[in-house]
Amino acid sequence: MKENISHSGAWGIAVIMIVLASWLFYRYFAPKTWREWASAGVVQAFIIALYAEMYGFPLTIYLLARFFGLDRGGNLNANLWSSLIGVGEMGMMISMLLGYGLLFVGIGFFMQGWRELHRAHQQNRLATNGLYSIVRHPQYTGLFIGLFGEGIVHWPTLFSVGLFPVIVLAYTLLARREEKLVTEQFGEEYLAYRRRVPMFFPLPGQWRRMVERSNMMGDKDDNTPPD
């Protein structure tokens, strides 16, 4: 591989992005048990690997060029979509816009979900309003969408593509564990809620409603009864 890979070598930006993304993640997910820390550790590895490749050294591009001849077309870019499809800067721009769109939707979901869950805990009640009337774990839904947008759509790497299903599995198992504890606390009330509300992803036709309810600036009480 003789070509220089554009959009690489900015390690200072990589460190800043890793710190900011890690702070945002731990600010709203705040792991406490060992299961939560184990799941958070996989997300942390995802964040470090993603931004280290995005701004530092594009290991995925290097390996694909070294062993699979990705650089034969002469359109080598740190972004995998640009190099793989050969669409250059335009391809990177399209993937960036789509990825950031999903990222910000995901951030909106888990920030608003955190507010609603925190409010329910303060009132010692089951969270069933707002986003919780559409899915049972909106924070995890937001995490999945945000990581998919940033690490698969915007800037896919071998590590981000490989770690994403591990993250989904880890948080699915964690969610099931949490539901057992909530069932012990709320009993039939939670079982009835679980029967009518899906776990992570809204029923068909409910996505728009979920996006509308994920107003990141809205921190006022939502007394809307669940549907």
What are the SSEs and their pairings?
Elements (H helix, E strand, L loop, with lengths): L10 H19 L4 H23 L2 H10 L11 H6 L2 H35 L15 H17 L3 H29 L1 H9 L10 H7 L14
Helix pairs in contact: 1-2, 2-7, 5-6, 6-7
What does this structure look like?
The protein contains 9 helices and no strands. By secondary structure, it is mainly alpha-helical. It is elongated. It starts with 10 loop residues before the first helix and ends in a 14-residue tail after the last helix. The model is unreliable at 216-227 (pLDDT under 50).
CATH topology name: Four Helix Bundle (Hemerythrin (Met), subunit A)
Main sheet properties:
none
- Given helix and strand content, the structural type is mainly alpha
Unreliable stretches: 216-227
Name of the CATH class = Mainly Alpha
Rounded to an integer, what's the Rg over CA atoms? Answer: 20 Å
Q: Helical residue percent?
A: 55-70%
Count of individual domains: 1
Average of pLDDT: 85
Keywords:
single chain; 227 residues; mainly alpha; 68% helix; 0% strand; elongated
Tell me briefly what this model is.
This protein is mostly helical. Helices cover 68% and strands 0% of the residues.
